[in-house]
Amino acid sequence: MEDNKKRNPNSHECNSWSELPLDLLNMVFKRLGFVDFQRAKSVCSSWLSSSRQSVPKKNHTPWLILFPEEQNNSYCKLFNPEEKERLYKTQDTGLDFSKSVCEASYGSWLLMHDLCYNLHIVNIFTNERIILPSLESQLGLTKERRTKPKNRILSCLFWIDEKTKDYVVVCSLDNLPVVYSKKVNNSWKQIPETSECLGMVYKDHKLYFLNYYGDFCIFDFYGETPQQTFQRELKVESVHSRKISSRLRIVATKLVATVTGNVLLVQKIWRSIPMTWSFLVIKVYSYSSGNLKEHQLVNSLGNESMLFDQGITVLANETYGFIANSIYFSGCDDKKDRNDLFLFNLQTHKTELMHKFDCSKFQFSRAQWFLPSFTHA
Questions:
Q1: Pairing verdict, β 276-286 and 296-297
Q2: What is the DSSP letter of 225?
Q3: What's this model's pTM, rounded to 2 decimal places?
């Protein structure tokens, strides 16, 4: 008997997953986290098309990127705390990571440079790449000085717009003035009176800068050229010194921007007795109240977790192992612990091992936190 039923074009009846209605798919995509979103858009062409029209749920869970140690290796491994027993392998980036250094990250973008300080920005998921202008002319690099890159101290940070690809890159090399580059000018320009950089952080189009003499400045990047809008002197003991005492040594100093709107001066300290890490956290500026009459010692981050290596805080999420009022950092400063991840609890002042990777399967030289962002590729 012949079936004369005709299919209603407005019906939600479908014969395969690829035929699900667009409005239903959009509802699904809006509820997915980062990993599930990436998986779902790979199901078929119709799901990929739907993902491009969806506004995904913002990712708040940091991931770790593990850079390979072996030569001629052009891929990395990614560690998602939501899936503790699994590592993801990136696409072939075309970069030799044994000869490249990651200076900073923003979303899924990494700021990389080779041994000759050639800089570029690369998206770890899509392989999009932005080549930056040469640093040689502004920083006075010569062929002779480039042969010993390990003797030089390069510090960089950046911001990028996911849609327009507008960017701001800020770099400090040795004790030279800080330079910046924007997409609109595609060149490097100096920021006056920014020599001897000790720490800097970029947030909401503002650069927060601190030098070795304790001068703290704010530069507004909204206009064509950055304008200094604030300056004060921080009289913080041991800011200038690398060695506080025979038992205490400052390993690293950073400015950190918090979710709740503060700028913190954070010092990573190695204690020889007992042999452990500790941190000193000082609030130097507040977005809401502006200038502080004097710096304030911070004993609590509230419901935030600090990613020290990245210079930011994120909302704590104990489901995925991010404990509130804690500082997460890598052991990259120490050869023995370089492949380990630690957390320092500001309340108990104790350092704990967070995660130890099995290096027998994948040899990596450095681990770095980043916050993956969605792209509609």
A1: antiparallel
A2: S
A3: 0.81
